[in-house]
Amino acid sequence: MGFKSRQKGTFSIELSFVLLAMAVLLFFIFDLGFQVIQKSQLNRTSYSLVSILKERKAFYSPNPRDTNWTINQSQANQMLQMAKKLQGNNADIRVSIGHKSGSQSEIILSAGDNSLNCDSRAIPNTMTQGSKRDLNVYRVTVCKKVPAFYEVAFLSNKTNKNRVLSSTSVFVGR
Prior knowledge:
With 174 residues, the chain is an alpha+beta fold.
């Protein structure tokens, strides 16, 4: 009888440890799911923007036969505004766009929050050469600052409350 009376609180203590571990695991899964959703939205945004960049003659040129393929800062700023609307107007976003034709050097323009570390790779020469006509290749990288819930709550990372997610899409033009 004495053995049973000493075991009365053991179940409660063990249950509290198990519930705490499950809560931490569920919070981690929630944070991971949130990051996956944000990355998916960035992928759709970068794909939409590179599609617009590729077809920009229809949007920016009054003459449909115009062959002016240059990208300017005004277009980069307009693409930033489109990205903000797709991601939510209060999002911290940076957009980097690039255009390369044949062996010419890549034209790179950026717009948005310069504090974001937005790493985008250059378009390689092998993508633009080798056909009868030099190809036009377009690249759009969208970077977004998102909250880092798990790191702040459980890893004591109070200095870096956000992480930067990025997505790059590349299209071959006509």
